[in-house]
Amino acid sequence: MNEESIKYALLEKRFASPGFQFYFLGLVEDCKRCSYKGVCGKLKSGALYEVVRVKEREVKCLLVDEEMRVVEVVEVPIEVAVEEEKSLGTVFTYMPPENCDEECENYILCNLPKILNGRKFKIVEKVGETTCKKSGRKLVILKAFPQRPSLLTSPLFPQPFPP
Question: pLDDT by residue for the chain (163 residues), tens digit each?
């Protein structure tokens, strides 16, 4: 971990401890009026972060009306299970499986936060293999980083229908 990879975030005191991991899902409207938005606003939407150090500084969050701790975080790869053919390159586009059973032991690996649907991921490591309990298809468990969404593929800029 180099100094350039360290970012800062605000977390509720109960979550502010080294090793705690969280998905940053983006700023909400109330955050845009906060004088500390520059801290959280530098995080990548959809990324998984891990707390590496807790600072002594506390600030009041207007959104949750609680004291928050300033923490140092680093982005960590997300473990995700994908169909084998998606694991063959270095980048894949994530889409959750259809009709996934919430009782399945692989549910969390197959179903990432919805903000990541359609996002490209860069593969950094193959962790293992498993089988989809519903379809019987082979799945590969990967560690991967979500890429920043392109403005051209962002839901804010819908793609035109083909002619």
Answer: 556 699 999 999 999 999 999 999 888 888 888 888 888 888 998 999 999 999 998 998 878 888 999 999 999 999 999 999 888 889 999 999 887 888 888 999 999 999 999 999 999 999 999 998 888 889 999 999 999 876 444 444 444 434 3
The conformation of residue 54, written as its DSSP 8-state character, comes to: E
Cβ-based neighbours of 10, under 8 Å, separated by 6 or more: 36, 39, 40, 59, 61, 68, 69, 70, 71
The C-alpha R_g of the chain, in whole angstroms, comes to: 18
Buried b (16+ CB within 10 A) or exposed e, 40-55: beebbbbbbbbbbebe
Question: Could you tell me the residue ranges of all domains in the chain?
Answer: 3-76, 78-146
* Entry pTM: 0.83
Which segments of 47-150 are extended strands (E)? 48-61, 66-76, 78-83, 91-93, 120-131, 138-146
Distance of alpha carbon 116 from the chain centroid:
7
